[in-house]
Amino acid sequence: MAKKVISPGGAFSGAVELPGDKSISHRYAILAALAVGKSEIANYASAADCQSTLTCLKRLGIEIESTTERVHVTGKGLDGLSKPRAKLNAQNSGTTMRMLSGVLAGQSFTSTITGDASLRRRPMRRVIEPLRHMGARIHSEDGDRAPLEIGGGKLRAIDYKLPIPSAQVKSAILLAGLYADGVTSVTESVRTRDHTEIALREFGARVESAKAAIRIHPRPKLQPLKLTVPGDLSAAVFLIAAALIVPKSSLVIHNVGLNPTRARVLDFLISIGAKIHPGSVQMLHGELVGDISIQHSPLSGGTISGPNVAEMIDELPMLAALAPFTEKGIEIHDARELRVKESDRIAALAEGLRRMGARVDEFPDGMRVEGLNAGKLKGAKVDPKGDHRIAMALSVAALGAAGDTTIRNSDCVAVSFPQFFDVLERLREPQP
Ligand code: S3P
Question: What does CATH list as the number for 22-215?
Answer without folding.
Answer: 3.65.10.10
